[in-house]
DNA sequence: CACCCAATGTACCATGTGGTACATGCCGGC
DNA sequence: GCCGGCATGTACCACATGGTACATTGGGTG
């Protein structure tokens, strides 16, 4: 007979979690195309037997990966918001974008979109990803915007639009690699923000922090 | 030995094209998950033998599907632009969005994002989709914006941003189904447009065409 | 009619798949 | 020092896959 470990509180560095970590890294780098359990296991330095052992099945394994990716996304968001300090929304968005646009993150973002689209298609293993895929980003943004004086409704719309801009431009960037062009588009949106952010104490300060990629 | 038809100018309703059409419909409805040739063939009312016969291989088949989807996208865009008439950019964007957001198109859009993300991951059959996936939309938009008085550079950025907003909000809509909330975000962006569109002959006309989903 | 050739059907193959059964290594606690 | 149980390795299975070979149909043209 076989045994699937009780999935208890999960000691932080159990073999299971080690595998998970490596899995995310590998999937980010190579995507989760049709890869079979065996290929994956091989690339992860384990055996397909182990994946089934720790996660119950291939599906179960992918569910775990999705959850972990989701968790990382949220963590990144939290850090961004925490780092915010007293910067203006516009400046926050620029910084956020600067981080997201870093080529080092591209693989993770590709994986994110891949899982996203699979979830949209109703693939069961990716569905958990959808829960909060919008709201978990909007809520903090709304709170932040309100702190800067926007009333509830516009704040929500603004947050939603900002998220869409980020993701839309990310799709663009991943496809074209044209950082300069995408940056210009973002700047256009950010300018909008400045115009609306009536509560910003210093809306006209030279917040450009160096003409955004002017030279290179 | 076997034979793959010479892929000539393709009489418009050859069995090959019939299959292609049904394939798009079916993929839009069910996504192209792991589906095998046989499953697909079954769902399309043909045999896996035929798919290989007409398209050379599974990959070849998917390439053909991708190309066809691409073509449909462009056709839709062309029609939109043609229909434009003399409406303001803001109004155009609203109309465009109204069409895109129609639930009847959701399946196609899901398929689009699925193929998009697969292409981003470097899956060979989807790669052809990337070519022009940004530019083929931006070029007409730029031309349009210029006709409304914007100089080249802002026009490009504006077009790029607009595309990102559309796709980002579409991702949102497909995940949440919250048309009302997404509409509000779009309206926020469109308002921006009006502000910049200095060349619009009637920027203050009640272009709201009925308070956008005010009631329901 | 005879011929051709695109279109389709039937049967098959080697390979890889997800999953399972069973044996074993290896650790800490009694 | 032995024993329980997590972790892992080996071997296997039934099955589905993509692709191929070969035969057959059927409509149009000489």
Structural category of chain A: mainly alpha
| Reported CATH architecture of the domain at 69-196 in chain A | Orthogonal Bundle
Rg of chain A, alpha carbons: 20 Å
Mean pLDDT of chain A: 84
CATH names the topology of the domain at 69-196 in chain A as: Tetracycline Repressor, domain 2
Assembly state = homodimer
Low-confidence stretches of chain A: 196-216
Separation, N- and C-terminal Cα atoms of chain A:
62 Å
Number of helices of chain A: 10
The beta-strand count of chain A equals 0
| Series of secondary-structure elements of chain A, N-terminal to C-terminal | HHHHHHHHHH
User: Biggest interface, and residues per chain?
Assistant: A-B, 49 and 49 residues
CATH superfamily of the domain at 69-196 in chain A: Tetracycline Repressor, domain 2
Instruction: Please describe the biggest sheet of chain A, giving its number of strands, its sense, and whether it closes into a barrel.
Output: none
Shape field of chain A: elongated
**Helix content bin of chain A:** 55-70%
CATH class of the domain at 69-196 in chain A: Mainly Alpha
Strand content of chain A: under 5%
């Amino acid at each position: 007979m076989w045994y699937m470990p009780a999935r208890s509180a999960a000691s932080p560095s159990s073999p299971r979690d080690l595998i998970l970590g490596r899995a995310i890294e590998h999937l980010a780098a190579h995507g989760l195309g049709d890869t079979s359990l065996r290929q994956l296991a091989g690339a992860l330095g384990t055996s397909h037997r182990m994946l089934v052992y720790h996660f119950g099945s291939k599906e179960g394994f992918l569910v775990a990966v999705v959850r972990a990716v989701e968790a990382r996304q949220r963590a990144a968001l939290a850090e961004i918001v925490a780092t915010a300090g007293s910067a203006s929304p516009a400046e926050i968005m620029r910084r956020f974008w600067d981080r997201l646009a870093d080529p080092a993150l591209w693989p993770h973002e590709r994986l994110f979109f891949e899982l996203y689209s699979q979830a949209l298609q109703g693939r069961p293993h990716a569905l958990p990803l959808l829960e909060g895929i919008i709201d978990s980003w909007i809520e903090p943004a709304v709170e932040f915007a309100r702190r800067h004086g926007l009333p509830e409704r516009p704040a929500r719309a603004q947050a939603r639009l900002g998220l869409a801009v980020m993701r839309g431009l990310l799709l663009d960037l991943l496809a074209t690699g044209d950082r300069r062009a995408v940056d210009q588009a973002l700047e256009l949106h950010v300018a909008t923000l400045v115009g609306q952010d009536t509560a910003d104490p210093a809306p006209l300060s030279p917040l450009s922090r160096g003409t955004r990629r002017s030279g290179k």
